[in-house]
Give the backbone structure.
Amino acid sequence: MGSLHNDSIESNSEKQIVLNPRERARILRKIDWHLLPFVTVFYLLSFLDRSNVGNAKVAGMATDLNLTGFRYNIAAAVFFIPYSFAEVPSNIALKLFRPSRWIPSIMVAWGIVMTLMCLVKSYQSLVVARVFLGFTEAGLFPGVNYYICLWYPRSERSKRIAIFFSAASMSGAFGGLLAYGIERMEGVGGLHGWQWIFCLEGLATVLVATFSFFYMHDYPETAKFLTEPERSCIINILKQDSSHLSSRFDTQFIWQAIKDYKTYVQIIIYLGLLVPGYAIALFSPTIIDELGYSAANAQLLSVPPFVAGCIATIIFGIYSDKYNLRGPFIIGGALVSLVGYILLYCSVQAGPSYVGACLAAAGNFPTVAIALAWAGSNAGGDLKRGVVLAMVIGFGNLGGICSSFIYIDPPRFHIGHGTIMGFLSLSIVTSLFAMWDYNRLNKKKEAQCLAENITDDRGYEFQDMGDASPLYRYTI
């Protein structure tokens, strides 16, 4: 298994290695085992650290810090301001520096901030800490999505991003269980239970980041776990998948991303999906608490919706790659989530409302991962892809500010649920437009290639055009 089987490859006239499906799958699985555990744990810790303020609120933080009125909402929202605007420069930095140095470094930074949040004594200090947390954590999510794009061809990214993003729902489930246990440390070391939530989860991030400095891999070209034939094969696969587009650093590719209207279409789709996602993360314990359960039971009952979201995310990712489709899966998941929010909006009983919460999470979480795979797959060239992903995630995360202020009318939360139903509908409509537009552009390129006799061997002529190259095809 350490080298390629002789019957699995052949060389064409251009010395390109062609793999049979079994050998290709074996190499990709080998990469999976060396990459996905790292990035999944990274994002689990990231999502846990940014959303544990919801668990801390239920655990007594709101009372101890006098979070009356909109104070909790403001503390939750300020995270997203630096988090949104620091993502584009962070992804450019990832292009300039090694991933194994950049990503663990920002993890150490936010882990320290998270740990020190256990010392906050007032609403004002909580707000300041959340601002620093947003700034230091900003590069992780777009950075890892970009990192995955450097290792996998487009047809293989959705399931990997889904596995990576499933950490968000896992962190929601794990966060509820962890908070339930950590609350029992009330008074230990003179700290409240909610302070221990911040302290222990921050220390876990620092420890994992320190370990990652030594064991995280950078690029296929430098991966020591690949044999030379395997390395040549994956590099060749990625080169062919990119339609021979340039991978160098040049500011023209940054401007390509900024000026492309399709970037903003993807931002709208992602924004409509992320507002519900953050609302689920930040307010699930509160919503369940308002259904009449005790604070401790609310922590535990917040677990099943996230488990449902985790399972659905992986299933959707697998089948999205299998059929090489993105838009239909986003629309399908958004519709399931919409049904869940309709139940939450209309029901007056705890049982149906709780079922609605599970459907809302199970439908929403998969769509976020697929939307990111869609945005990355349809941006041609390494640098443009990195900037597009950072823009989509950065502007989309501004929706976190919105989700922080819409759950203001307990116990039914009609304003919050109604607002989210509107955002989901926006994503559905915009996804339908994107599917139509990508299909239109593909047909236009096919006609151009036929009329001008453009084939793959002329790829070098269009290497600086990004996805505007006539050889580049968009995923629907």
